[in-house]
Specification:
Largest sheet: 9 strands, antiparallel
Strand content: 25-35%
CATH class: Alpha Beta
Distance between the termini: 50 Å
Length: about 240
């Protein structure tokens, strides 16, 4: 069942991505240096990272650097996912979960816990921990897998234009397609679609058009000091 659905989603995503790429050429920002790093461990755990560098006016970055705008960035990701699949995929919201569905319940492709936000003067992150779903192997249910968006300031204060790195990461994800069919099938279907959609999302950020949050958890004038700091990156191994 999933393979034909993924093929249809791939076609829809390609058509919409091409149209949005043309629009991005007239946007106030610029996105470049796109990159993909996708790996699968021996036990089937997948880590997939797509990143890009967004160049924008310094004044625009300062206006966007707040917890409220970080929450809007999170919402923008889900809005893009729905739009680029022509509404075939949508996201249901609750106080404790985000559920990615195909058309409607109970076709739950992915279910996440409510997002966790962190931010400081240089970096902001939003993380959704994976619960379960049709696209997740049973061993990946309620585990330590997650989807995360990470934004990091690259330019010095006052530098104009400003630059930020935006990274979308899926980690410790166990794909049901890789388990039920094969790893090669996963790579040429779900994995390629994910990379295509994420590249489209990153390019769309050049328009600086962030969606209004459905929940508004970080509304009310919260500052960077009112949310937790992002976790430190893992230490680099000692060099011989």
């Amino acid at each position: 069942m999933l393979a034909p659905v993924l093929g249809l989603l791939a076609l829809a995503a390609a058509l919409v991505a091409a149209r949005r790429h043309r629009r991005a050429e007239r946007a106030p920002g610029r996105v470049g240096k796109l990159g993909d790093d996708t790996t699968m461990g021996a036990e089937g755990a997948i880590r997939s990272v797509q990143a890009g560098e967004l160049t924008l006016p310094a004044s625009a970055l300062e206006a966007l650097w707040s917890p409220l705008q970080l929450e809007r960035l999170a919402r923008t990701y889900w809005r893009f996912l729905s739009r680029c699949t022509l509404g075939l995929i949508r996201v249901d919201y609750s106080a404790t979960q985000r559920t990615v569905v195909l058309l409607r319940q109970p076709l739950r492709l992915l279910r996440f816990k409510a997002p966790e936000y962190a931010m400081d003067a240089r970096r902001g992150t939003v993380r959704w921990r994976i619960e379960d779903g049709l696209l997740v192997q049973r061993r990946g249910h309620h585990g330590d897998g997650y989807l995360q968006i990470d934004v990091q300031r690259l330019s010095a204060a006052g530098e104009d234009p400003a630059r930020i790195r935006v990274e979308v990461e899926v980690a410790n994800f166990y794909a049901s397609i890789a388990h039920r069919l094969s790893r090669p099938v996963y790579r040429v279907t779900q994995s390629r679609i994910h990379v295509l959609v994420t590249y489209g999302f990153l390019r769309s950020l050049a328009r600086l058009d962030l969606a209004e949050s459905r929940v508004g958890r970080l509304a009310g004038g919260l500052t960077v000091d009112d949310v937790p700091d992002p976790p430190l990156p893992p230490a680099e191994p000692d060099q011989p």
